[in-house]
Amino acid sequence: MTQNPFWPGHSSNGSCIRFPVAGETAVLWQCAVSSIQGLGIANYEVCMSKRREFGEQIISHKGVLENNYESLRILNVERNGNVIYTYKDNKGNVFFGLYDCQTRQNEHLYTFEKDLHVVSCSVNSDRTLLAASLVHSTKEGRKNELQPGSKCLTLLVEIHPVNNVKVLKAVDSYIWVQFLYPHVESHPLPENHLLLVSEEKYIEKFHIQVIQEDGSRVVIKDSGHLPRERVAEDFVWAQWDMSEQRLYYIDLKKSRSILKCLQFSADEKFNLMFEAPLDITLSDSGFKLVNFGCDDLQDQENLSKHLTLCVFTNHTGSLCVCYSPKFDSWEKFTYSVFYFHKGHGKTFTAALGSVDSHVTKGLTFLNLDYYLAVYLPGHFFHLLNIQHPDLICHSLFLTGNSEVVDMLPHSPLQSLSGSLVLDWCSGKLYRALLNQSYLLQFLWNTQLDCEKMAVLHCVLSCGGDRRFLEAKIIQWISENISACHSFDLIQEFIIASSYWSMCPETSNMDKLLPYSSVLTWNTEIPGITLVTEEIALPFMKVHSFKGYWEKLNSNLEYVKYSKPHLHYNNSMVRREWHSLISEEKTGRRRSMVYVKNILDNATKVISNLEARNLEPRLTPLFQEADNHQRLLMGLMVSELKDHLLRHLQGVEKKKIEQMALDYVSKLLDLVCQIMETSWRKHSLHPCVPHFSGRASAAEFKVFHIMTRILEATKSLFLPLPPGFHTLHTILGVHCLPLHNLLHYIDSGVLLLTETAVTRLMKDLDNTEKNEKLKFSIIVRLPPLIGQKICRLWDHPMSSNIISRNHVKRLLQNYKKKPPSSVIHKSSFSVEFLPLNYFVEILTDIESSNQALYAFEGHDNVDAKFVEEAALKHTMMLLGL
C-alpha cells in the first residue's frame, strides 16, 4: 500500500481510536491507512471491548454491543490524552468509558439506564467526577436526532465509586461541559473546576470541592451549594484549547468582531490575556463552538455551507487565526489566515477545477507545530509555513489532481487540540504529524521549483537525526543540481539547514538568522492566488509574561519596532574582508592584535568543525593554512557574535560566542558534507589529484559540483574550507582545456592559490604545451606570489619575469642624476651602450639602497642578473 506523508501508519507514540465494524471483535488497530507521509498520524487505540461490569473485559464475539456498533462515539479528549467515549445497548442504556493513553486500558465510568443522547461529557483529572450534558433521544426519524424543545440535563456524577448524581442545569438550550486540568497532577486536588458553556451565549465556571469518606470514597462537599462565576457572555464563537487550558471567544462590539483569550492557570484562576480585532463577519453566523468535545456526525451534506474559524498557537509564540467564510461558489474556495505574530494576514483563493466537482465536505485546519494545514477533501491540501509566511514558495500547495491529495482521507474531519484529528466516518482519532520519510520521497519526485523549496524547508523542520537527514538531501541535490531554475539548491540547503540547526534551541533566533537565500518570489503557484494585508496587532491586557505569552509579546514587539528585518547578512564581513586583503597587498596592516583575534576565531571554528566529524575525511581539505579563508571565517564569527549580542536579550556572552562559532562551523560542515558525498560517490582517492594524465569522468563531475558550491557561497560571501580553492584549481587544470581554464581564472571562478601553482610548477615538465600553461598562469598571479613562483621554475621566461619585477621595484622612486663620464664594462664582451648605461644606473641604485631594494629571499638577483637575462632574451628573440 502506498505510504501517505500526512497520514502514516502505526506509530509507537500513540494509537488510533477505532470503532468496531460489523462482524468483527473489538481489537487494537494496526493502522494501515494510506497517507502522504507528512501528516503522519499515530494511533490512539481504543479497544472498544464489551464490559459486563467495571473492570471486566468481555472477549467473546457474543455480547450486548454486537448489534450497536453505530452507537459508539468519541465524546472528548482530555488534556492528559485520555479519551472519553460512549455507546448504547439494545435497551438504549448509555455507557460511558475512558481509554487511558498511558496504560492503553479501557475503564468503565458510568451507565445511564435511560435512552438519552449525550451532548457533551468531561471527567476530572482524578477520575472521581463525571460531568455530562444529555437530552432525550427521539424514536422517530434519524437516529440520535435531538427532540425539539426537550430539556437538556447537565449532571455531575460521583464515580469513585459510583454514588450521587447532582443536576447542575435543566434548561431548554444545549450545554457543553469541560473540566479544567491543572498543570500539576502529582496529587489529588481538593477542588475541581468545571466550565459550562450555554447555547444562550454565556460561560460559567463551577468550583467543586471533594472530600474522602470511608477510606477511598470521594464525594462532593456541600453539593447543595456549588460556587460559580461568570467567565464570558454575549459571545458568538468560542474555542477551547485543551493542551494549553485557554479559552478563545469572540464578542461583537458595534458589529465589530473582537477576539479575546482567557488563560486558566495552575490555581484555576484566569486572566484576560489579549483582545484583537478581526476583520470578519460573524453577526449572522449563529452560535459556534470549537473543541468542546467531539462533534456528532450530523448534516454532513451541509458542512461546506458553514463558516470555519479556529485559533492555532505553538511554542515559538505564534498566533494564527484561520477563517473560511460560507461557501458560495463551485469554482473557487476562499480562506484567510491572520498571522498576528507577524502583523499581517493572507487571503487565499484556491481553484477547485471542474464545475462539476461539488464541495460536499467542510474545510479542515490542522495545527502541525511550525506549519498549519488547510485541507478540503478531494480538492486541495495547503501546508502553510507559520514561522516564515512572507513568501508563498515556503508553503506547499497541492491540488486535487495530486497523488498525495488522493491518498488523504476523503471523509469529513474534525481538528481537535494538540494536533488531534477525528475522522467522523471511520471513527478513528489521529494525531497529525509531518512524516519526514515521505516528504523526502516527495522531494525526489516533484518537478515544480516552488514545491522543492517548500518541501526542503518542511523536511528540515521535522528534526530527528539531522546528520542522516542532511545526507539524504545532499544525495538528492547531487542528482538534481541542474534541475532547479528559480533558486540555487546548494545555497538554499546551506542556509536552511544552518537555520534549523540553531533556531529551535534559542528564542528569537528565527528573527536574527537568515531563513532562506530567496528574498523575493514572483513565480505563480499553480492553482492558488493570495492577497496580503496588514492587520491590527493584539492588545495585550497583562504586563507580566511567562512561557508562551512572553514569546508572543516578543514577536509583537518585533513587528512594531523592528523594521527593516534584523536577519544577519554578510555585507559588513564583505567590506571588512576586502579591506584586510587590500591592506595585505599594499603592505599596510592594522593592529596585529585585531588580526590575531580574527585568526583565533577561525582556529576555533576549525577545531569545532573537526570535533563534529568523527569519521576520517576523504576529501583532501584542511591541508594548508589558506589565510584568506581563515580571515573570512574569523570575521564572520566576530560580526555574527556582535549581531547576536545587540539583539538577543538575557543570553550570556559566552553562550552567544559559542552560538556564533557553531553557526559558522555548521556552514562549513555542510560544504564539507557535500564534498564528502561527491568524493565517495565517485570513488576518488583521498589524496590531491596529480596534474599529469587525463582527467576521469568522475573528476569532471566533482569539479562541476565544486564549481556549483563556489557559485552558491560566493554571492552570499560565505567561507569555504581551507584548501577548497587549491583543490578546485587543481581539478580545473586537470579537466579543462587551456582557453577554458584561463576564462575560468579571469572570471574569478578559479582562484589561483600559492599551493596550487607551486604543485603545478613542480609536477609538470617543460614541454611546449606545459610551458604555455605555466606562463599563462604566472602572468595572472598577484606580484608577491608571482615572485615566489618564478624562483621555482628554471626557465628563461621565469628569469625574464624576475628581472622585470626587480627593475620595476628599483625604478619606482628613481630620481635622475647627472650622467657619469665613466661607463663600466659589462661582464659580457658585448659593447651595447644603451644596455651598459641602464645596468650602471641599476648598479648605482642598488649600491645606495641595498637594504631597501634587496630581492627578498633571492640574493643573486641584481643588475648583473638583469643584464644577463636581457641579453639572453634578446638573443632568443633574434634566433641567435
Automatic annotation (TrEMBL):
Pfam families listed in its UniProt record: GSAP-16 (PF14959)
Matches recorded under InterPro entries: GSAP_C_dom, GSAP_fam
Domain Gamma-secretase-activating protein C-terminal stretches: 668-775
Ranges annotated as spanning the membrane: none
Name of protein: Gamma-secretase-activating protein C-terminal domain-containing protein
Species assigned in the record: Felis catus (Cat)
